[in-house]
Amino acid sequence: MNVTDVPPMARTRVQVATLRSTFADVCLLAEPAVVRARKAGNAVLVAGADLGDLPAGAGAVRGAALNAFSMDARARLDAPG
C-alpha cells in the first residue's frame, strides 16, 4: 500500500496500526526523514503472514521501531455487520 502523508504522519500511523491488527508481519518503507515526520512524502506499507528476508535498509522500519512509530495510533476497522 502506498500512503502519501505530511508530518506528523497521522494517516500513515493509522494505516500501520490497521495492518498490524490483521497481519502478522508489517514493514514500512520510506525515506528516513519521512519516517521521522520531518518532511512530507510517500511510505510503502508491506504486510503478510511472514515477510521473511524483505530487504532491510535505512528506510525499512519493522518490529520494535514500527511499534514506536505507530504507538499512539488506533486501527481503523469497520463496525461489525
Question: What do you see in this structure?
Answer:
This protein is α+β, with helices and mostly antiparallel strands and 81 residues long. 27% of the residues lie in helices and 23% in strands. It has helices at residues 10-20, 32-35, 63-69, and strands at residues 2-5, 25-29, 41-48, 60-61. The protein starts with a strand and ends in a 12-residue tail after the last helix. The model has no long low-confidence stretch (mean pLDDT 91).
Give a summary of the structure in a few sentences.
27% of the residues lie in helices and 23% in strands. By secondary structure, the protein is of the alpha+beta class. It has one domain.
Number of domains: 1
Number of strands: 4
What is the share of helical residues? 25-40%
Element pattern in H and E: EHEHEEH
Secondary structure layout:
Layout: E1 2-5, H1 10-20, E2 25-29, H2 32-35, E3 41-48, E4 60-61, H3 63-69
Antiparallel strand pairs: 1-3, 2-3, 2-4
List keywords for this structure.
alpha+beta, 4-stranded antiparallel β-sheet, 81 residues, globular, 27% helix
